[in-house]
Specification:
The protein is of the alpha+beta class and 629 residues long. It has helices at 2-10, 135-138, 146-150, 154-157, 172-194, 198-220, 227-233, 251-260, 282-289, 332-343, 372-382, 396-400, 479-484, 503-508, 564-574, 582-587, 602-606, 616-619; strands spanning 16-21, 26-37, 46-51, 56-60, 64-65, 82-87, 90-100, 105-111, 117-123, 316-320, 328-329, 361-365, 450-456, 467-473. The chain starts with a helix and ends in a 10-residue tail after the last helix. The structure holds zinc ion (ZN). The structure holds a DNA duplex (11 and 11 nucleotides).
DNA sequence: TGTGCCGGGCG
DNA sequence: CGCCCGGCACA
């Protein structure tokens, strides 16, 4: 115990866990919001767990499953407990039909993407209560915060925090949909049991929102005014046990943010997994989101005031990050297919082992103007607008037709002149994989891509030297997207769209919704190799300092407290090695010595104990190809 | 002290 | 090449 506890304690706040919901004896996903009491000889530690649906509850550590807490392996699962298992290489969500405690086998009802249900028996240790790994995207469901990733998985082995799974993604927004389905039950329970409803929605969303909101605010320098929370929820329900929200408007964000990490959040929901998802992601998502409101109280209703909506502006594009490739697709499926086909020379419909594809593309959000700057330029070029929701789903090809539709975003208030930039720098070689054709120069794959170069000199704060961003869009039609939305790209998946920003934004109507997504960074990002034609983007975020791990309580709002894993991800996402003084990189006496990137590599992520999960390069002690900085 | 990975070595 | 690992710069 001590050990555990200790572990948990440090950066436990923000850790994704599954907490026991006393009312029904099942575990629900959420995150540690704070620690109420320490563990003592006579009693176990108590934490405030904020469930994904918005509820907050005090839970004893022994009733928490997750990194630093109880392993799933020792947890009795009730009928209907939602769980995640790996099926055919991908994570799927299912519900427990029964758990034989004697042999610790669990009969799980799994619903395939195609909709059919079937049962499977798993050892308890192979069952996760939280969604893990990569799955988010691949899997069908969604939600993913990467935070989840780690989760429970550790049960079996302990610790690994999972990050291991590389998964990245977060995205709440998307999740929503999923939640709708699965969680629905969850929600219901909550409502009925406790009453809160609104919050639940926002639970999912909030993360993103927060993030976004935070960013927005920051950038705009607007202060968060009061409005938000309230509306958000709509009416606040009753008191709910928790505070319904945090004191600060954003506050809620903060917490959530944590999990999602910066913005990382939004992953998409499930989209990807099934090869064809009929609906567009976004659309469903939105809808799903709100849906069922069970009980009644929820605000609901259509207007959506509460919920966010994402639909409208959000748009996410997926850009291949393969060395010189600039392929962009509207769906992750499409991009993964592209990667498999083009870069891995594989059958496009067969996933690579370990979903390696995921490591080779990033998401770009195009939401409303967040990025405007960049966009602006683009806009100038094309003037297009982002497409709406539906588009997302189409594959690249289809994408092309994205047409510009209307420009929704822009007019809002643009943020200040800062620039958003991206991030992600290819930096050195990509080692292992040589791709056959990555086109380096501009066209990349060929299709009609537009290549963009953005160079910026910094207007102020951003970078010290300018950096250039080069983007190419493949789909011909797409140009707009970028323009319209900002694009945030992060490393591999970790980020996603956040579009929905928020309640606040919305409600105010005038608020800039998307405004800033990203940020600009105060510091300079470094340029890196540039010139050559490689693509590079550097991005600068505000660097969040890696927070010291110890924050427990919730400080103010935005600071994120993440679990280690999350933080990890987050970092990776941001990865700009901010700390590095640009100058450093060059000096070189011949030796290479590069400033070490902040990104955690396989070794750190998976740990020595899971060396088998490391990318090959890491195994060989070569430069990691999975977590490239 | 731990991490990332260059440079080499070996089969 | 694939696979390992000594060793070193960093953090
Ligand atoms: Zn690696």
């Amino acid at each position: 115990m001590f050990g555990n506890k200790r572990l948990a304690k440090r950066s436990i706040v923000g850790t994704r866990v599954c907490g026991l919901w006393p009312q029904d004896g099942r575990y629900y996903p959420g995150m540690i919001q704070s620690q109420v009491s320490e563990e003592s000889i006579t009693s176990s530690a108590v934490y405030v767990v904020r469930f994904d649906d918005g509820f907050t509850q005090h839970v004893k550590s022994r009733c928490i499953v997750g990194p630093g807490f109880q392993p799933v392996a020792t947890t009795p699962l009730k009928h209907k407990q939602k769980v995640f298992i790996t099926l055919n290489g991908r994570e799927v969500c299912g519900t427990v039909l029964c758990h034989d405690r004697d042999i610790d086998e669990v009969v799980i009802s799994v619903r395939t993407p195609s909709g059919e249900d079937f049962e499977t028996v798993r050892k308890l240790e192979d069952v996760r209560l939280l969604e893990s790994r990569k799955s988010a995207r691949l899997v069908d469901h969604p939600d993913t915060d990467y935070s989840k990733l780690a989760d429970v998985q550790l049960s079996a082995n302990n610790t690994p925090v999972a990050d291991a799974n590389k998964r990245r993604m977060p995205s709440h927004v998307i999740d929503v949909p999923m939640m709708a389905s699965l969680d629905k039950s969850e929600r219901n329970r909550r409502q009925r049991s406790t009453v809160e409803d609104n919050s639940d929605d926002f639970g999912d969303v909030e993360m993103m929102d927060e993030t976004i909101a935070a960013m927005v605010l920051t950038s705009l320098s607007v202060s968060p005014k009061s409005p938000p929370p309230v509306n958000y929820y709509g009416h606040t329900p009753q008191k709910e046990q928790l505070d319904n929200h945090y004191p600060y408007p954003d506050s809620h964000l903060s917490s959530s943010v944590a999990s999602s990490g910066f913005y990382s959040g939004p992953s998409e929901r499930d989209d990807h997994s099934p090869p064809l998802a009929p609906l567009s992601e976004s659309a469903p998502a939105c809808m799903g989101f709100k849906p069922p409101t069970p009980g009644g109280s929820d605000d609901d209703s259509s207007n959506g005031s509460g919920r966010l909506l994402i639909c409208e502006e959000e748009d996410t594009l997926y850009k291949c990050t393969w060395r010189g490739c600039k392929e962009i697709a509207n769906t992750s499926n499409a991009i993964e297919r592209h990667i498999r086909r083009v870069h891995f020379d594989r059958d496009s419909d067969i996933e690579l082992t370990d979903n390696e594809e995921e490591f080779h593309y990033t998401e770009i959000d195009v939401t409303a103007q967040s990025i405007n700057n960049i966009t602006r330029s683009f806009a100038a070029m094309n003037t297009s607008s982002p497409k709406e929701a539906p588009a997302t789903e189409q594959p690249a090809a289809a994408a092309s037709q994205a047409h510009t539709g209307k420009p929704k975003m822009d007019q809002l208030r643009p943020m200040p002149p800062k620039m958003p930039d991206y991030q992600h720098i290819p930096r050195r070689r990509h080692i292992s994989e040589g791709s056959p054709q990555a086109g380096i120069g501009g066209s990349g794959t060929g299709q009609g891509g537009v290549a963009f170069h953005h160079s910026h000199g910094q207007g102020g704060d951003t970078v010290g030297g300018g950096f250039t961003t080069e983007i190419a869009f493949v789909p011909k039609g797409m140009s707009s997207s970028l323009g319209s939305g900002g694009a945030g790209v992060f490393d591999h998946d970790y980020q996603r769209k956040f579009s929905k920003q928020g309640p606040q934004a919305q409600h105010a109507s005038s608020v800039p919704t998307s405004a800033s997504l990203f940020h600009e960074s105060p510091r300079a990002s470094l340029p890196i190799t540039i010139s050559q034609g490689q693509i590079q983007k550097s991005l600068s975020w505000q660097t969040h300092p890696p927070s010291p791990a110890g924050i427990m309580v919730s400080p103010p709002q935005r600071p994120n407290k993440l679990t280690p894993q999350e933080r990890l991800m987050q970092h990776q996402a941001q990865s700009p090695k901010s700390s590095v003084p640009p100058s450093a990189f060059k000096n070189a006496p011949g030796h290479h010595r590069r400033p070490r990137s902040e990104v955690r590599k396989c070794r750190k992520v998976y740990g020595m104990e899971h060396r088998d999960q490391w990318c090959t390069q890491c195994k060989w002690k070569k430069a990691c190809t999975r977590f490239v900085d």
